Amino acid sequence: MRFVDEFRNADQARALSAKIAAAREPGRHYKFMEVCGGHTHTIYKHGLEDYLPESVELVHGPGCPVCVIPMGRVDDAMHLASAPDVIMTSFGDMMRVPGSTGSFFDAKARGTDIRMVYSPLDSLKIARQNPDRRVVFMAIGFETTAPSTAMTVLRAAAEGLENFSVFCNHVTIVPAIKAILDSPDLRLDGFLGPGHVSTVIGCRPYEFIARDYGKPVVVAGFEPLDILQSIYMLMVQLSDGRAAVQNQYTRVVPWDGNPVALRAIGQTMELRPYFEWRGLGFISHSALRMRADFARFDAEQQFDVPGVRVADPKACQCGEVLKGVLKPWECKVFGTACTPETPIGTCMVSPEGACAAYYNFGRLSRQRVKEVSRS
Amino acid sequence: MTAGHPGMAGQARAGGRGPGPGEDPGAGWVAAALREHDELAAQAVPSPHDGRTRGSPQPPPGTVREEEVLERIDRARRSRPRVKEQRITMSHGAGGKATRTLVEAIFLDAFRNPLLEPLEDAAQLHVNGSRVALTTDSYVVSPLFFPGGNIGDLAVNGTVNDLAVAGAIPLYLSAGFLLEEGFPVDDLRRIVASMQDAAAAAGVQVVTGDTKVVERGKADGCYINTAGVGIIEHHRTLGVAQARPGDSVIVSGPIGDHGITIMLARGELDIEADVTSDTAPLNGLVADLLAATPGVRAMRDATRGGVATILNEVATDAGVCVVVSEDDIPVRPEVRGASELLGIDPMYVACEGRLVAVVDGAEADSALAAMRAHPLGAHAAVIGHIIDDPAGIVLLKTAFGGTRVVDLLVGDPLPRIC
Question: Which of B5, B53, B386, B404 to mutate to test the interface with A (most CBs of A within 10 A)?
Fold first, then answer.
């Protein structure tokens, strides 16, 4: 298949693998964080770690949209959805995320009207078709999905729709990366920057990582060769003693981002003073809410939202996994109390979550997989 | 986190009425899950280097703990299935882990008997010295009409196939109709005509039936249940538990056509692709395969849950490792393209006219030739083989050159966000 197979070529992977191995300094251990959950998914889905020497380690970062949603926000969404005239609409990934009384799927089974959509525009369609109901879109995701929410709100405003609103949970990636960089218990050598977020915000927002923290950043695409090449670019920067922001994903990411998308976000949304992240706690200026001009499309202003704060279950170590301090299997409840069937932590829900990816695709030590694949 | 608001931690947001920081949020299910975890953890922990160890004889330092964790997970997975949900969710009908748990914990637990226990596509009964196969299946597909077929031929072919892959010659079918008030009679005529055509093509007769009508809104147009009986004329023992190291795994054609066709036919995705359902009766293909291959161990039709689910059933029930190669799995470019766009894996997408066969490795070539000689097996392919260890696991050698586990899904494949 064109535009896909070129980026999954095993011969080129072997060549890059050899270059990565050759770029190592003897005795040095390399730890790179792939910020984005889409990268985590690619790494596991294609078995990419088979191409990396043991001294090059990948740490799975916080860029999984559903993984960072705290339980309280899910409970708030359930409360919204339980009003009899409300139709809650949500992306599929969100359906299994647990709140304190279960997931959207469980609420749906109890009779709450929750519908899965593929785009916020589908929610708008449902709103048009059901003028006597109030339709709420559960908006989640980083800067990647925020523009589509913004464009949907602008369209709803242009059409004068009065029964559509957004429960805005959009988050921004840079404060989370900064929080991780400031975390004392972490040693990272560099970052694979989030590709699709960067199509919107561009590469400049990461410059502080190189300048202030001395860590190289390579904005990476989502095919396996993209990731191997980006790792190689990080290794080259390190061996040159440099720390800069580089763009590997040039076929999609413009250096300055997408001004139309940024304008749409800026027109409809503004930064919240703070927002709670699952496992990471409250982070300043790390999320978006609807602007006052668009209050009538803001579910938090249109409805009585309880604003529940629910402490993460004590046994759940999602925070440490999101920060890359723990490998998924090092979490106390991984794979026993917390499984994809009954996730306690959000990292176990989305196929982009580090725990779910490891559980579904990697549930065998690398050593053992190598033995089998050689047999 | 330094960027956090330590003062805020534990406080409700403005207007908050939620539980305070020290309270147990998930009084119900979280507590139950953690209790279960503690019970498991309290059980004797075997050394990772005895019994079913998966580690190399002398693992490098650092992997020992990972091995222990994997062992613990393995134990948890082998423990008695329990339905933890209070209510049925859509996942229970998706053919993955949730379905398996429901079937084992509720149905098998209540009805347990040696004929049911293998949980094969059809039960094998001994009646006056003859071997008879019996199966049943319900059809609730939406939309009722789709490219390549409709609920009627699906209902006939599905039951014919469940009999065929059990090694039986399908003979007689029943048809039960659950109709919604207001359903167009013309649509019913079209559905029933397709059923008769499908029955004639498969050489079976619909010999008994039932009709129920429910009020508008209590059903989605038309549901059909079919049951079927067939006769087993050979003396072989077929079943996924028969798979053994050295066997080969064959699929009869490109996978995922039906599931992708249905997803696109629902019109929710704004994706257009030239795909049609693969619904077809497999009894002719099965007869040719069995005639040419004494060493057939098992056959399954790859419906809900797709090929990946069947491979997992083989690995679990036979206690073997199934190794398949992504490059060898036939997938139409249209199906692959749609799957890439949606972020789902064709390995989990349903087929309605494809089977997976496990055959003696020495007979793989002749089995493949026999299948390819039949029109429904023209694109059959050997996709992998069986080894002994690590038992219970399906491994995929990716086209990219890596290796990974292929697990059962919990429920339906969900499209990814971005």
Answer: B404
Element (H, E) at B32: helix B29-42
Instruction: Measure the CA–CA gap between A34 and A241, rounded to whole angstroms.
Output: 21
Residue of B nearest to A91 (CA): B417
Taking CA atoms, B390 is separated from B47, B50, B316, B323, B404, in Å, by 17, 14, 11, 10, 13
Chain B, nearest residue to A8 by Cα: B400
Q: Rounded to an integer, what distance in angstroms lies between the CA atom of residue B177 and that of residue B170?
A: 21
User: pLDDT tens digit string along B105-143?
Assistant: 999 999 999 999 999 889 999 999 999 999 999 999 999
- Which tokens go with B396? 């995929």
Residues 6 or more apart in contact with residue B384 via CB below 8 angstroms: B248, B249, B311, B322, B323, B324, B325, B328
What are the residue ranges of helices labelled H in B166-305?
185-202, 257-265, 283-292
Residue found under tokens 């988050």 = A171
B23 pLDDT band, cuts 50/70/90, is very low
Selecting from A91, A283, A334 the residue whose C-beta is nearest the C-beta of B4 gives: A283
Render pLDDT for B285-294 as a digit per residue (tens, 0 to 9): 999 999 999 9
Contact A307 B2 (CB under 8 A): no
Q: What percent of chain A has pLDDT over 90?
A: 68
- The widest CA-to-CA distance across chain B, in whole angstroms, is 79
Q: Is B402 helix (H, G, I), strand (E, B) or coil?
A: coil
Lowest mean pLDDT among A133-147, A284-298, A358-372, B252-266: A358-372
pLDDT greater than 50 at residue B25: no
> Taking CA atoms, what residue in B is nearest to A92?
B414
CB contacts, 8 Å: A140 with chain B? 417
Q: What is the mean pLDDT of residues A293-317?
A: 89
Could you tell me the strand order of the sheet in which B381-387 lies? B296-301, B355-359, B248-251, B381-387, B321-325, B394-397, B403-405
Q: Which helix (H) or strand (E) holds A86?
A: strand A86-90
Beta bridge partners of B174: B208, B227
H helices of A23-98, where?
A: 37-45, 71-81
Range among A96-110, A118-132, A349-363, B260-274 with highest mean pLDDT value: A118-132
Are A70 and A312 contacting, i.e. CB atoms less than 8 angstroms apart?
A: yes
Give contacts of B10 with chain A, Cβ < 8 Å.
309, 311
pLDDT digit string (tens) for B162-201? 999 999 999 999 999 999 999 999 999 999 999 999 999 9
Higher model confidence: residue A318 or residue B76?
A318
Chain B residue numbers with beta carbons less than 8 Å from the beta carbon of A5 are: 399
Mean pLDDT of A200-225: 97
Per residue in A235-283, pLDDT tens?
A: 999 999 999 999 999 999 999 999 999 999 999 999 999 999 988 889 9
A–B CB contacts, 8 A cutoff, strictly below? 281
Cα B232 from Cα B287, distance rounded (Å): 11
Identify which of B323, B407, B77 has the alpha carbon closest to the alpha carbon of residue A360. B407
In A34-145, which residue ranges form alpha helices assigned H by DSSP?
Answer: 37-45, 71-81, 104-109, 120-129
Contacts of B263 (CB under 8 A, 6+ apart): B269, B338, B342
Of B25, B28, B90, nearest to A310 by CB-CB distance is B25
Cβ–Cβ below 8 Å for B398 and A183: no
User: Choosing among A42, A69, A172, A310, which should be mutated to test the B contact, i.e. which has the most B CBs within 10 A?
Assistant: A310
For A345, which DSSP code? S
Which residue in B has a C-alpha nearest to residue A283's C-alpha? B4
Asked if A342's CB is within 8 angstroms of B69's CB, the reply is no
* Cβ contact A372–B268 (<8 Å): no
